[in-house]
Amino acid sequence: MSALLSAWCLLLLGLVGGSSALHIPPHQDVARVARFVANQCDWASMATVSTHDPVRGQPFSNAFSVSDGRLGSGCGVPYLYLTRMEVSVQDLQVNPQASLSMSLAQTDYCRQEGYDPQSPLCAHIILSGSVVEVNGTEADFAKDALFTRHPEMVGWPADHDWFFAKFNISMVWVLDYFGGVKTVTPEEYFKASPDTK
Ligand SMILES: *[C@@H]1O[C@H](CO)[C@@H](O)[C@H](O)[C@H]1NC(C)=O
Ligand SMILES: *[C@@H]1O[C@H](CO)[C@@H](O)[C@H](O)[C@H]1NC(C)=O
To answer: What is the 71 CA–ligand 2 centroid distance (Å)?
Structure first.
């Protein structure tokens, strides 16, 4: 599946993303909503299991820049640009399991609609899974996805030994409407059309 996914990501590499006014997919198309949120957000809160005293063993949530591709044509895989000098990445070296949270509260959408960030109408997603280093053609895709949306990364200090990683999704949790959280399998998530029109 991973080879298929990276092939899909590489296919998208050639496409030009059309950014448009935020037009969220219908809430019952839960997998599409998840893909939409994952593509719109430029950053995510990532919780790791801390390896640092005095909170060793406790959840530790931290902000990371992410990208699943150009705006409007994401492949669904959140890519990250990381250094082992970073506190949460040190946790991941011990335990790669993590949780990534993204919300349309990070865009203008919820403010414009008058939705509080905790309202389910302000669509947000939680990804469960693990962080996995990527290299080769997938790292090339990750670099394009990240550096086009985070141009400042180009100049980050070379001696920090940056590497590309992906969030390897095991489950997607979606809050996009009343009635409680909905779950989407990775298969459903990656099958969903990233096209929002
Ligand atoms: C590619 O990444 C994997 C981990 O995903 C690693 O085990 C392997 O050594 C890497 N290969 C190179 C050439 O860096
Ligand atoms: C990705 O996660 C799945 C579980 O959802 C796991 O079986 C697989 O080994 C992981 N892949 C890597 C490269 O860690």
So the answer is: 26
Question: What's the token pair of residue 59?
Answer: 């959840």
In this structure, which amino acid lies at residue 36? F
The pTM of this model reads 0.88
Nearest residue (by CA) to ligand 2, atom 12, is 132
What SS3 state is found at 80? strand
In this structure, what are the phi and psi dihedrals at residue 57, rounded to the nearest 5 degrees?
85, -5
Per-residue model confidence as pLDDT tens digits over 33-88 = 999 999 999 999 999 999 999 999 999 999 999 999 999 999 999 999 999 999 99
Report d(CA 161, CA 105) in Å as an integer: 32
Neighbours of 90 (CB within 10 A): 15
Domains of the chain, CATH where assigned: 23-191 (2.30.110.10)
- Ligand 2 shell residues, CB under 6 Å: 129-130, 132, 168, 170
Expressed in angstroms and rounded, the spacing between residue 168 Cα and the centre of ligand 2 is 6
Cα Dmax for the chain: 49
133 ligand 1 Cβ < 6 A: yes
Question: 167: part of which helix (H) or strand (E)?
Answer: strand 163-175
Q: Measured from the CB, is residue 135 less than 6 Å from ligand 1?
A: yes
Indicate which ligand has the atom closest to the C-alpha of 186: 2
